[in-house]
Amino acid sequence: QGQLAESGGGSVQAGGSLRLSCAVVRYNYNAYCMGWFRQAPGLEREGVATINRVGLTWYADSVKGRFTISQDDAEDTRYLQMDGLKPEDTAMYYCAASSIPWTSCTRGQWTADNFRTWGQGTQVTVSS
Q1: What radius of gyration, in Å, describes the C-alpha atoms of the chain?
Q2: DSSP-based three-state secondary structure for 17
Q3: Is 14 helix (H, G, I), strand (E, B) or coil?
Q4: 88, 45, 40: which is closest to 66 by C-alpha?
Q5: 48/54 Cα distance (integer angstroms)
Q6: Tell me, what's the pLDDT at 12?
Q7: How far apart are the first and last CA of the chain?
Q8: Mean per-residue pLDDT pooled into runs of 10, the chain (128 residues)
Q9: Fewer CB within 10 Å, N- or C-terminus of the chain?
């Protein structure tokens, strides 16, 4: 399936910033779409942002204008820059990979079940 490794989580105060990284360890399929998801205790996993092979992006309404997803193809690493963090952003953050078409990737036409490969998660805690 492949492996992904997240890093960069931590604890910050409201208004602070964090940068998450997702390194691809290996793939054995064409991953046209990479995404960041988050899951808070007692809540369902939700999509935060996605990016396709040509760099087009999608964001959840709750993070638009605050979070930025990007990728470094040379390093095969994806990033999630999180600025203006709020206590409601507190969650475990996961990166994931999918073979869905790149057009679907950035139109929000997917569910978490469409993503085949997941990292282990990194905790983000925002205090007020």
Answers
A1: 14
A2: coil
A3: coil
A4: 88
A5: 19
A6: 98
A7: 39
A8: 86 98 76 92 95 93 98 88 98 94 90 92 97
A9: C
Would you say how long the chain is, in residues?
128
C-alpha angle with apex 70: 67 to 73, nearest 5 degrees?
165
Q: Which residues have a Cβ under 8 Å from the Cβ of 120 and sit 6 or more positions away?
A: 5, 6, 94
Joined together, the tokens standing for residue 2 give 């492949």
Contact 77, 6 (CB under 8 A): no
Phi-psi region of 125 (alpha: psi -120 to 50; beta: other; left: phi over 0): beta
Q: DSSP characters for 26-80?
A: EESS---EEEEEEE-TTS--EEEEEEETT--EEE-TTTTTTEEEEEETTTTEEEE
Q: How far is it, in rounded angstroms, from Cα 39 to Cα 94?
A: 8
